[in-house]
Amino acid sequence: MSAETPVQSTGTFTRLRLRFRDWRGTRPFWAGLFTLLGGIPIAYFPYATLKLGHMSIAMATTAGAGSLIIGVLLVTLGLTMWFQSATRVFAGVATILLALVSLVISNIGGFLAGFLLALVGGALSLSWVPGEPPVEAAGEHDGADAPTGEAALDGTLHGPAVTPRFPAAPHGKGEDGGADGVRAAGGHRVG
């Protein structure tokens, strides 16, 4: 392998992992994941049947249809957070409201597991903010700033840094120890 070998030698798994990481970074991924995971127990438990030997325990309630609707809506909102991140505020509020309603409708919100997951997912969706766009190269200028060296409307100066010029020596004593002040440009004391 030489120094001129292109970087294409990375494996397929590494490329897919990096693409997934880039995709995940541009949307409220964890909010959508928690919301999806919260919808599953809320929709599942009312229809589950637990078997203990020959005895079966059914968790089904009259609100089973409501639980199914809430669970499906939470899964849909989780997918919405992933694929339509512009609607993250609506999806977050709707997720929190559905999680609260699931406490009453769906076996205490899927035995609190679905409720807590959906609540955390909704809160993460509300708090997620898109990242800053990548910084442009130093030589590029998009025209948003004031022209070089001119003051903007807010009074800040944009452009190259200007270093202030100070006298050769501080007031009070010259470089030669004299008490009368600053040296002139030629090196003689100004009297």
UniProtKB/TrEMBL annotation:
Residues 135-154, 164-191 are annotated as: Disordered. The chain crosses the membrane at residues 29-50, 57-83, 89-120. The keyword 4Fe-4S does not apply. Keywords: Membrane, Transmembrane, Transmembrane helix. Residues 181-191 have a biased composition (Low complexity). This is Integral membrane protein.
